[in-house]
Each structure stands twice: as C-alpha cells, then as structure tokens.
Write a structure and sequence with these properties.
15 helices, alpha+beta, about 750 residues
Length: about 750
C-alpha cells in the first residue's frame, strides 16, 4: 500500500504525513509532499514534472525520507486514536520530501513510486498543483456599511484556476481594543495577537492552545469611534490584530471558486456605535436568541457515570436529602451506545427500513439498566426536575453495526441522508468521521431539512411519549475536510462550520414541533448559533487556570450574542477539584446564565470522581462543602426571576445577559485591567474570586453608585475596593438605584 492524500484528513492545525502541505501551495513557500506505505515497500521516489510559465518542462526524480507516521494531528504509535486506526497505522511507514519554494505560475505534476522487497514496484496516480500568487484586486471585497477597508490593501490569492483567499486590512487606532470572535478562552482583548475562526474540538486546555469549539468571524472595536465588523462567510478566516503592524488589523478569508456577484468574492459588513448597538445590528443578521423557560436558570446536574435509572434517582434523592435544589438532570450514558435512540437493555424489534419507533415498541426488563424510563421522567417532573438526554450526530460503524443500528446505516446510505466525500476514483461515497470520537462513523447531513427530519423523527418518542425536555447536542465538530460534499451542494470548506448550527436547530425544531421549548445544550457552534438553545464551554480539567479560561470563554461568547451559556464549573475531567476550587467556581457559576456541574466517565473506579457536592465533601474531607454549596444554590434559586427578566431584556436590546464591563463603560480604560468582572443584567456587578488561598478580593467599580450585596455598604464608582470574600460568596455589587428590588435576593432576612 502506498497512499497520498493531497488534502489530508482536514485537521485545521496539523498536516498529516501523507498529505501535501500546504494543500494549496503559494509561490515563494516550500511544499512538503508525503506518503504512507505498508511495511513491504521501500525506497519511495517522487517523480516530478515542472511546467514553467514559459511552457518548458523539467522532469525530476527525488527520494523521500522516512518520517514518523502521523494522522489527524497525532503521531501514530501512542497517539490519541481509536485502536482500530492505531493498529492499521502501526504497520504503515511515513515518507516525506520538501521541495524548494514554489515558482509563480508554475504547474507541478507528481506521483510516487515505491519498491517492494521482492523487487516489484507500486505507484500512485498523478497529482498536480499550480503555485498560487497574491495580486491586488480592489473589487474583491464588497463592503456593507461605512467603508473602513484601507485603500489598496485588498489582495486575492489565485492559483490560475480559481481564487483561494482574500486578504485586506482595517485601520486600528492605538486606543482601540478588539474583542469578540466567538467563544475565546485566552483573553478578552485580542489586540497584539493572531487567531483564526474554524470549529475545532480542542479537548481540554483551550486557553493554552488558543483553539475553540465556537468561533465567529465577528468582532467589536472599542475605544475609538466605536464599531465592529462581520466577515460574512462560513469558511475559515484568519486575523492579525495589530501583531505585525500595530496600526492594522489584517483579515484573510477562504473564498469559493465562483464570485458572489461581478468581481466580488467576499462580503464584509461594518456596524457603528456602542458595543450594544454593534451587537444588536450583528444579531439582526446572524439571528437572536429565542427565550427559553425559567427552569434553564436553575442548577443543572450531570455525571457520565449516572448510567442507570437507579443511579439517576439516587443522585436526585441525594439532592433532596441534602436540601440542595436542582432544576434539571442531564443523562449522558442512557442509550445503547449504538443507535443513540434506544435505552440500554431495551428489547424491541428493529425496523428493517430504518423507520422510527414508538414507546409501545419497547419493553424494558425489570432488572435492566432502565426498567421504566417514562416512570423515571414522570417522577422527576413531579419533583420539578427537567430531563435532558445526550446525543451525538453520528452513526457508529465500529464495531460493525447490528440490529437497528445496521438498518439505520443502510437506510441513510440508500436514501442519501449523509455527508459524502470524494473517493480516489473521483466518485462520492459516505463520509467517514475523521474526528477523535467514534472514528469511521457515518455523519447525517443535518444541514439538509429532509435528512434532519429523518434523523430527529427517530427521537420523537423520547419527547412526546417519555417526556424528555431537551437534548445535549454534543460533538458537532466531526466534519473535517474541504472536499466534503453536503446535500445542498456545499463543499466542506463552506459547510463544516455550519454543521453545528444546523445540528442544534434540528433538535430544537423537533422539540418545538412537540410543543416544548427548544432547549438544546451544545458546545460547538458558529455564526447563527445564537438562535439555537444553550451552550457550555466544553471539556476541561479541574484547575484554577481552566476556571479563568472558562470565564473568558463565557464573556467573549456573550459579547457575540450567545445568551444562554455556562461551563462545567470546577472542571469535569481528571481527579476532583479541591474544596476551595469547587466552591469558588460554584460561587461564580451562580452569576452565569447556565449553572452546571458535570463529570467525565471514569469506568466506575473508586474513589468516585463525580462533581456532586457530597462526593467533593467526602473526597476532600471538608465538611463545609455541602452547607456552603446549598447556600449558593439557594441564592441561585432566588436569582431565577431576575435572570428570566434580564434574559428577555437582553433579547430585546442586544445587551448581553452576562456582559463584559466595556459594554456599559466604553471609555473607562480601567475596566480592561479587570477582564473577569462582568455585569449580570442591568443591575449586578460580579467580581469572582479566581485565585487560590485568598479571603479578600479587590474589585473595580466603574462609574455610578454601588452597594455591596452582602453588607449593604455604599460605594461611589470609579475606584477599586477590597472586600471580604469568604467561600460562601462572590463579591457582588448592586446598582444603587436597584438596591430596593435586589436586597431580598442577597439579604433575605433583612
């Protein structure tokens, strides 16, 4: 076997061994060509034909060197790949050749030949590319609104066949700060940095790696005239935010092969005014949040090891017994891990045509994992607890599907419900997942309305008959590769970022069609996600760094119009947090739109890694955890009416529910020195304690008059104050004008 894939797996940040890198070579830059081979092949040669701009042809033969084989960003042996992939890859060898910088208007045609140990040869097909060049093109960008594009800065990268990218610059005054770009974990102000916008599953350490599940090509520019911009594309974009030239913000964007109109390749929209005005204008294009019911503001409880009906009820009983209110339970490990539509241990007759089931089609063994799901949901509803079930947008193909899972896969292929990819012979075949989870799975094209209905109808009985209240729409990041084909004709470069938006919408549509609110809980998203449910910040460790990164994520997402947002407070992965980190993080989460604890699957090893307050108390030996946590959740319960009222105002005005201080204090430079403070609605200023081993905290109070929510002490604004910060509270200040309305929330006995 000798294999070369010019575009690789589609990993946006790392080249695979067997790809061309860059996949679209640019004149003046070196090009690396690689293959993977099976063990019997040796001495790989690249045959190269170079046709210059004058038509002359040079033929070369270059030997490749052995390199470690890598795929999807992972070195094969010991990498984070499924065992089946690793087994295959261990028997493969990597080979690469780096060519000198490509010449402009020059075509490179190449193939690879390898010798077998028995003296034979194997060859690949011929591949080719033309080195692309940048050229000025003043008409390539269509500006909507006040034109801020620097004259003569617009360029197009063209390979002689089609345009590939557009690049242009915007002016930056030294006083201006740039913020937004979707959910960002490392900073609030991105001035002086470089970043990109592409949906990507960065498993943990998102702040350190500077990658995100939910990017957006939208930003605020604060501190000068007040403006913002939206690059109106679903393709990948890049930003140099004053890093190379402090006076310029340089934007680069992938473009489609055909002009949008005339010579236009890209639309760029500018917005003017305050951050609230800019966001409101952007949401009029992208879509605003739909109001969700008040229960979403209550505590969400979850643990990946709650994988039986008995365990779910036990955990909810513990909430009751400890007096800790809970509003919803997210059940992740409920399904058969095959169809993701049937409860584990359920008995039923598979539908040979892949059609959906009704509740009456199932029987549930008395001693099974879920003996009576409907009775469980009814019981939880009677306790005023809502139920959310976990989902992934994949059809698992490893191990080989059996029963209804097999019929689903056959129907999806037969009826054309899937995202497709190009086969080596140029035909289209079902796309096989290249992401980390469930490799080689099929992926329904949820951007297609009919395919989305086909997919969600299989879940209708869960909503209408069992009574679940929402879905955790996890794993929307699995569409990799620019060459993918969607059912509406989009290729992957255009459709992959849109997939998670369509995914949440499809489940929201199902819930609404059943008369329920569209409560979805997603981690992946893009422009347009604002209109589709709630979001959490993804997978993270229980560390103080992760705590701070998550707050940055929430504030930047909120600045882009994501209203219902939260995170797994105190982390979900690895060993349990300290009691201090758990309570500090929970105290901050009281003042975030979604308050949720969650924990990763740990194979039921002991001691437990659940993030329940009783497990944290037992693991840490700190007997204050349950009483302090109860106090915090009771405060959250008292806040629910305020949160619901302020959410409605946020939808109406565009001002985020959880908003960075610069939204209300545009010209106050001091707020940027306290980036992890925020306003929760119009009246509450939150200054969470994000450092370990402190019992006092310095908060900044911007202009206005403020009252300490815990002591009723009055403060004039435009100053820093040091206040007491015991573990059962986070420093919060109330606008003086609102104190009479808010004091009973914080001082209920006063």
């Amino acid at each position: 076997m000798i294999r070369h894939k010019p575009f690789g797996s589609g990993h946006p940040y790392v080249a695979d061994t067997d790809q061309r890198s860059p996949s679209h070579p640019v004149a003046g830059e070196p090009v690396t060509l690689g293959v993977r081979t099976s063990p019997e092949l040796t001495d790989v040669i690249c045959e190269l034909e170079v046709t210059g701009r004058d038509g002359t042809v040079a033929k070369l033969s270059e030997a490749l060197e052995r390199v470690p084989a890598a795929s999807r960003g992972q070195v094969i042996d010991g990498g984070h790949l499924a065992s089946a992939q690793a087994k295959l890859a261990r028997s493969a060898r990597g080979w690469q050749l780096t060519l000198p910088p490509a010449e402009p208007q020059t075509t490179y045609k190449y193939r690879f030949t390898a010798q077998t140990r028995s003296g034979g040869t194997q060859k690949t097909q011929w591949f080719s590319y033309t080195a692309a060049t940048w050229a000025a093109s003043s008409q390539a960008v269509n500006v909507i609104g006040a034109d801020r594009v620097i004259a003569d800065s617009v360029e197009v990268l063209h390979d002689g066949v089609r345009p590939l990218r557009v690049r242009f610059a915007l002016p930056l005054a030294l006083s201006e700060r740039v913020t937004g770009f979707g959910e960002r974990f490392d900073a609030l102000d991105h001035r002086g940095s470089k970043l990109d916008a592409v949906v990507f599953e960065q498993y943990k350490s998102q702040g350190a790696k500077r990658k995100t599940y939910m990017p957006m090509p939208f930003a605020h520019v604060v501190g000068g005239d007040g403006w913002g911009f939206h690059v109106q594309t679903s393709r990948r974009t890049w930003y140099d935010i004053g890093a190379s030239d402090e006076h310029r913000l340089v934007i680069e964007a992938e473009v489609g092969p055909e002009p949008l109109d005339g010579d236009t390749l890209l639309n760029l929209r500018f917005f003017e005014g305050t951050p609230t005005a800019v966001l409101k204008s952007f949401l009029s294009v992208a879509g605003s949040a739909k109001e969700l019911p008040d229960w979403v503001f209550r505590l969400w409880a979850s643990g990946n090891e709650w994988n039986t009906q008995a365990e779910v009820i036990r955990q909810m009983d513990l909430h009751r017994d400890t007096g800790i209110p809970v509003g919803s339970v997210v059940i992740e490990a409920w399904s058969d891990e095959s169809t993701f539509t049937a409860f584990r241990d359920a008995e039923y007759e598979p539908s040979s045509d892949g059609s959906p089931h009704s509740l009456s089609d199932f029987s549930f063994p008395e001693h099974g994992a879920w003996p009576d799901p409907k009775a469980m949901v009814d019981d939880l509803h009677a306790r005023d607890i809502r139920v959310v079930l976990w989902q992934i947008p994949l059809i698992k193909m490893r191990p080989h599907p059996q029963g209804h899972a097999r019929f689903d896969a056959e129907a999806a292929i037969r009826d054309g419900r899937l995202i497709r990819e190009e086969a080596p012979d140029g035909s289209l075949r079902p796309y096989r997942n290249r992401g980390w989870w469930f490799p080689l799975s099929l992926m329904p094209d949820l951007t297609d309305p009919e395919a989305a209905r086909w997919w969600t109808e299989k879940r209708r009985y869960l909503v209408e008959e069992i009574g679940v209240d929402g879905f955790k729409t996890d794993g929307g990041e699995h569409a990799w590769g620019e060459e993918l084909q969607y059912l509406n004709g989009m290729r992957g470069d255009e459709g992959n970022n849109l997939f998670p938006v369509a995914y949440a919408k499809a489940y929201g549509d199902l819930l609404e069609s059943a008369g329920k609110a569209p409560v979805t809980f997603s981690r992946a998203g893009f422009t347009g996600s604002q209109a589709h449910g709630a979001f959490w910040a993804g997978d993270e460790n229980s560390t103080w760094d992760a705590f701070r990164w998550s707050l940055f994520a929430g504030l930047s997402a909120s600045a882009c119009g994501v209203l219902y947002w939260g995170w797994d407070f105190a982390g979900f992965s690895g060993d349990v947090p300290s009691a201090e980190l758990y309570l500090r993080s929970a105290a901050a989460a009281v003042f975030v739109p979604i308050m949720q604890y969650h924990s990763e699957f740990n194979h039921h090893r002991k001691p437990s890694r659940d993030r329940t307050p009783w497990n944290i108390q037992e693991r840490t030996g700190d007997q204050t955890v349950i009483p302090v946590f109860r106090e915090l959740v009771e405060l959250r319960e008292r806040l629910v009416p305020y949160l619901a009222e302020q959410a409605r105002k946020a939808i109406d005005t565009g001002a985020p529910l959880m908003r960075p201080l610069y939204f209300d204090h545009i010209n106050d430079e001091e707020v940027w020195k306290h980036p992890l403070q925020w306003m929760l609605g119009e009246d509450l200023l939150v200054a969470p304690v994000t450092d370990e081993a402190v019992r006092t905290w310095t908060a900044y109070l911007p202009g206005g008059n403020w009252i300490d929510a815990w002591t009723a002490e009055k403060y004039a604004g435009k100053r820093t104050v040091e206040v007491s910060a015991p573990l059962n509270r986070v420093p919060v200040f109330v606008r003086a004008e609102a104190w009479n309305d808010m004091k009973d929330v914080f001082l209920p006995t006063a």
